[in-house]
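Bit of a strange request maybe. I'm writing a small parser for structure token strings and I need a real example to test against, not something I typed by hand. Could someone generate the tokens for this chain?
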Amino acid sequence: MFKTIAIILAAGQGKRMGSKVNKQYLNLKDRPVLAYTLEAFDNHSQIHGIVVVAKEDEIDVCYREVIIPFKFKKVIKVVAGGKERQDSVYEGLKVLPDECELVVVHDGARPLIAPNIISDVINVANDMGASITAVPVKDTIKRVNDKKIVKDTIPRSELWAVQTPQVFKKNIILKAYEIAFQKGFYGTDDSSLVEMLGQDIKVVLGSYENIKITTPEDLEIGCSILTNRQKSKG
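Reply from user aminoacidic:
Good idea to test on real output. This should exercise your parser:
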């Protein structure tokens, strides 16, 4: 029964990494970044299936270097992504099983997601229909004009840095995508599309360790986080 399906996005270009190898396949300590991400969802009891969205010319690489060697059992499909992130998510939505009720969207380049956060955001979305993971912003944020002159200071208590996973009931996310494409609207994340429906979206506290691997420095930070986690386990 494929009630809850995770769509893992691994079709990004990763230009800021400065590597010929896409960031999802770079090693984080002893294995590819994407392997850590898939492991978190493959091992989670509330995830019943996984759809990976990869670059069209990297689908074989995804199977050969990640899915097959690490024996992930819940991956039901690897599909080719689109031009933009939103297009890639839609490709994943197209292949969801009919019995799917909840859709979990997560960045393949966020390999350090904790199991309890996955549980929390799924449980909230199951009740409310839509939920996202985020953390409070630590820095003071200024609004500036096109000449870099400060216009005002935005109250920090109102600001949250949004992460993934983001979880939605299937009918809600499908409707949001259909309307977005009808309007020609492209958002920076999935919840921005759902917001247009007038749907309430509950924020679940994430973790500052749930970083997105984007630059070489992020790989170093990720290795440090993994090392500290291993030490804390004894």
